Amino acid sequence: MARASLSSTVRRFACVALGLILAGGVAAHHSVAPFDRSSMQELEGEITSITWRNPHIFLTLSVTDESGQTTDWSIEGDSANAAASRGYDRNTLSIGDHVRIAGWPSTRGRREVFLINILHDGVETVLGALDAPLRWTESSGSLRTAVASEELGRSIFRVWAPGGLYRPRGAIRYTPVAQVARDAWDPLTDMLALHCIPPGMPNANMNPYPIGFTDEGERIRLDIEEWEATRYIDMVSEEIPADAPASRLGYSIGRWVGDTLVIETAGMDFEYLDDEGTPMSDEARIVEQYTVNEDGSRLDYTVAVTDPVNLIGPAVWDAHWTYVPGTVIRSFECEVE
């Protein structure tokens, strides 16, 4: 696509996408890993190895069944940053510790679980960025509660804690060329995060980590803890400039529609849409909406993406953050395993 036609094309897409968001029904997609988020699996055993790093922590758990047979299970967790927000660091667990865990099982029939709950030394912790129900105990200091903010009201300009993982509104449809690329992708080896390669938009914003907004007058600064990403939202331009430089996070313009911040982004110079090998072309366009609820305790988020080269129709999904006083944005140092 010629750069000179970028502004008008984005504007047309923004109108369509915004209508789809408000209507509430199109295909969507997001996945964090090859795990089944609709079910939980419990395991109990001894820790035999620990890898404590961003973007994910890993444990090996030696599990002995009722017949006396012992097998090793690979336990993948959220980031070291997320664990730190729960009071865990690389010294909390040790090889030889006996733990009970629960998490999402593998969708590929492998002895792998994505860690959600852990019971260690009699204390249960939801060891991740997002809250989840406790399974074996009645109380834990690891759960966080969103609160209303009389001081900040409905202002978006603060640090927000992760609240709800991205949920698609329907099944996404891929073009044949995109499906071929996805079929050849192995997330256990090809996922860019495992190689400390930060994602572009929209994936850069699709994560359960703290984010913070700062009003800088003619632009809004959006800081994202994961990968220590910073986005700048142009609040002056009515259209994306025809000569806007392409970049990993694209060029974003914003406007207020009532109490909702609407952001349009184009010019993403990045190869992938997600963590599952879906390619993304330079024709991809994004429209986001951020809305603070009435009492200031929740920030609702909706994002719509279109890419005629790789997607059949737009994709729309939702998430939210919550206001938890004391939430901070930590540094994010990725370590290649």
Structure description:
The chain has 337 residues and is mainly β. It folds into two domains: 205 residues, Beta Barrel (Lipocalin); 86 residues, OB fold (Dihydrolipoamide Acetyltransferase, E2P) (Beta Barrel). 10% of the residues lie in helices and 33% in strands. It has a nine-stranded mixed barrel with strand order 7-8-9-10-11-12-13-14-15. A five-stranded mixed barrel has the order 1-2-3-5-4. It is globular and about 65 Å long. The N terminus is likely disordered.
Span of the ends, CA to CA:
39 Å
Sheet/helix structural class: mainly beta
* Sequence of strands across the biggest β-sheet: 7-8-9-10-11-12-13-14-15
Number of separate domains: 2
The number of helical elements comes to: 4
Can you tell me the overall shape?
Answer: globular
Q: Main sheet?
A: 9 strands, mixed, barrel
Query: Uncertain runs with pLDDT below 50, 5 residues or more?
Result: 1-6, 22-32
Would you identify the CATH architecture of the largest domain?
A: Beta Barrel
CATH class of the largest domain: Mainly Beta
Summarize model confidence as the mean pLDDT.
Answer: 88
Q: What proportion of the residues form beta strands (DSSP E)? A: 25-35%
Provide a brief overview of the structure.
The chain is mainly beta and 337 residues long.
Question: What are the salient characteristics of this protein?
Answer:
337 residues, mainly beta, Lipocalin, OB fold (Dihydrolipoamide Acetyltransferase, E2P), 2 domains, nine-stranded mixed β-barrel, five-stranded mixed beta barrel, 4 helices, 10% helix, 33% strand, globular, disordered N terminus
